[in-house]
Write a structure and sequence with these properties.
Chain lengths: 228, 228
Amino acid sequence: MKPFVLIAEDEKAVAELLRYNLEREGYETAVAPDGDEAMIQLDERVPDLVLLDWMLPKVPGIEVCRRIRSKPETANLPVIMLTARTEEADRIRGLDTGADDYVTKPFSTTELMARVRAVLRRIRPALIEDKVVVGDIVVDRTTHTVTRNGEGIHLGPTEFRLLDYFIQHPGRVFSREQLLDGVWGSDVYVEARTVDVHVGRLRKALMSNGGDDPIRTVRSAGYSLRAN
Amino acid sequence: MKPFVLIAEDEKAVAELLRYNLEREGYETAVAPDGDEAMIQLDERVPDLVLLDWMLPKVPGIEVCRRIRSKPETANLPVIMLTARTEEADRIRGLDTGADDYVTKPFSTTELMARVRAVLRRIRPALIEDKVVVGDIVVDRTTHTVTRNGEGIHLGPTEFRLLDYFIQHPGRVFSREQLLDGVWGSDVYVEARTVDVHVGRLRKALMSNGGDDPIRTVRSAGYSLRAN
DNA sequence: CCGGTGCTTGACACATATGTGACATATACT
DNA sequence: AGTATATGTCACATATGTGTCAAGCACCGG
């Protein structure tokens, strides 16, 4: 069962970005464009996590958060606040209200995804897979370790995140742009060709013990992890 | 290649609502505020689906629907009628005219989205699904793979797009010009004969495992994928 | 059965995408 | 500071895909 995330955010572009990234990391999502809608959806189905915009139309995010905490069935529901305000005072008020984490806009997608994972791991450890296995490759997020056929493999940070990204959806082809977005973050600018180099490094590392190439090149489309 | 939906609706608020929700779900949209405008836009570019208001200024929806059905190139175009009238008689008249579905205002957005998906899945499954099956051929867009009778088939980028295009409308015959437009893009100039070569390559690849030719040559008209 | 038109297909020159070693910086650790 | 490790780019070699042509085949109407 996929973790279900409610996105309470009125800016369409931001909501879409969140939805896209969450879904590709294997979450189920719903979007509420204002505070009222958020409350309605919360009544319909309790999510596993709420991403809550601070300034939400109709009912402000902080009020939504308060109401979430006041109802018994959602009292322990993890909430991550999104806000454009950077003032420390607000931050403290947000955490006081019971938000579990706090991210200021503009945020890096990869960072937010990491926070989402972190919060869920803390509150609902069972929902998050810490160890993913595809074929003979094992990725352990808690220890930051990769093994192939039992043998440990050393990967640099970027190669690790790259493999971690691929392993979310084995077999699926990702364009260089998607990989740059998901692995490097949508805010940094690097050449698309750089992806090739890192894929090459990842390949070399994964094949260092003699196995065959687990990454498939799809000409004019991108790369994918062999599903099997 | 997003599904393209034409919204023929004069009430701006409703049209906006539809547009917002459709675009959020990954559709491309255009709005026509009256019947004349709808007909003009239909001539310019044939959409994948039309949302058609019953009471449309200048040319009423039911008449637009009739005209859509009478033109060969739009005869099978999916149409969903929107209306405030709830009378059974109208409903029947609407379906008689050839609407594929019928939604009464006020409608729930999620319900309408579900109907849109349902109609498109029925009429043009290939637009919605990321895995399409025609006969013994399976095209998977997410993994960029093609299999026939379970055996993997390697296609170059152009051949893949060509097959993907054919599979949108199994059985339908496409002229070389249509294929150039749809597969290569309307901006590049290549010889019509080139289509022949690529069709040949696609055939060879698809028949490499011994199956029979899934593509039909229609002399002096073009090519089509055998519907079954 | 013949001629003509349209289609198929192998060859090939050219275009484009990808793989990879080298290198100059950046960053982290001691 | 000094060392080790990572990173992003480039340049060039290689692999793969593309468009065109032309010779030969298939089909159709007479």
